[in-house]
Amino acid sequence: MKHLFASTLVAAGIALAGAAPAVAQTVNFGIISTESSANLKTAWQPVLDDMARATGLEVRAFFAPDYAGVIEGMRFNKVQVAWMGNKSAMEAVDRANAEVFAKTVNRDGSEGYYSLLVVHRDSPLKSLDDVLRQRAGLTLGFGAPNSTSGTAVPGLYAFAQNKVDPVKDFKRTVRANHETNLLAVVNRQVDVATNNNENVERFAITNPEKSKEVREIWRSPMIASDPIVWRKDLDPAIKAKIRDFMLGYGRTDRERDILAKLGQSGWRASTDAQLVPIRQLELARARTTIENDTAPAAEERSRRLAEIDGRLAELGRLVARAN
Question: What is the side-by-side order of every strand in the sheet holding 115-120?
């Protein structure tokens, strides 16, 4: 009888153990460092909390001091999903087993944004031409190396195409995230800085009085809106949950209010194809640099230029097939 009672207890224990709820799977969501982690956490946490409730996943925010930290986090599978700029997403696709699955939509419904040059409102600088002419005496606030609007786009359209090296040709060049560059402009620590219209608009929300001290003097061609990426090897069932959540988010007033604080109205499906213009831009910038560099022998320069032209031609064929 004792043995029967003990066996019953063991069986009951196994049954109870089997009935224990499964531990939620964890997904780390990377957020690039466009401004302070505190500001970004305030803006993004409500979305991540909603994602956790809707998907049954444990969703944790992952912050790093620079864009490279999020890319490396994805490379070593410490980050599974991330909001990035196009340049950082390109690096993640090439080096961190990532792929684009969605992109942001702005509050006005547009799917793009602009790189800017900004100055203090009292600055005598009125245009890009003023900056280029006076660069030897100016301090430039430049973006992080993997920033699309802080480095890649102005690096080509504002500087390389005018045969100016933004790192070498100014009196001083300092690199920082968008928020820090805006504060440096406000405090007159730099004479001119790169930025983008979305972060200037965010700055007006987080620093309304200081934002009045900033003035735009140059605007780039439109850049594709920010991609959302995930690791290719993420569990397909988890991918489906995250995709369904993100593509359906923003339908209630509450969700629209949360997105508005991010400067967004929602997300739409996308693919790695949205990165092709950034790849073309990076190659064009490299081509301009080689053309302006007289140090290599003519034969070596010709070889390098031909290699870039071949890659640009292949990207052009990809675009043609897609259309």
Answer: 172-175, 139-142, 192-196, 115-120, 214-219
Q: Whole-angstrom Cα distance, residue 28 to residue 30?
A: 6
CA angle 245, 251, 252 (to 5 degrees): 115
User: In sequence order, which residues have a C-beta less than 8 Å from that of residue 284 and are 6 or more positions away?
Assistant: 156, 312
Residue 228's SS3 state is strand
Is the pLDDT confidence value at 7 over 60?
A: no
* Alpha-carbon 16 to chain mean position: 46
Written as one string, the DSSP assignment of 52-92 is: HHHH--EEEEEE-SSHHHHHHHHHTTS-SEEE--HHHHHHH
Query: Which tokens hold the place of 145?
Result: 């190396």
Helix 197-206 vs helix 178-186: crossing angle, to nearest 10: 70
- The residue among 286, 259, 281 whose CA lies nearest residue 85 is 281
Quick one: which of 210, 223, 49 has its CA closest to 143?
Answer: 223
Output Rg (C-alpha) for the chain, integer angstroms.
24
First-residue to last-residue Cα distance in the chain: 79
CA 20 to each of CA 23, 53, 57, 164: distance values in angstroms, whole numbers, following the listed order: 9, 19, 17, 64
- CB contact at 8 A, 130 and 217: yes
Closest CA to 106 of 178, 207, 202: 202
The pair of three-digit structure tokens given for residue 42, joined into one six-digit string: 């305030």
Q: How many Å separate Cα 211 from the centre of its chain? A: 22
- pLDDT tens for residues 36-93? 999 999 999 999 999 999 999 999 999 999 999 999 999 999 999 999 999 999 999 9
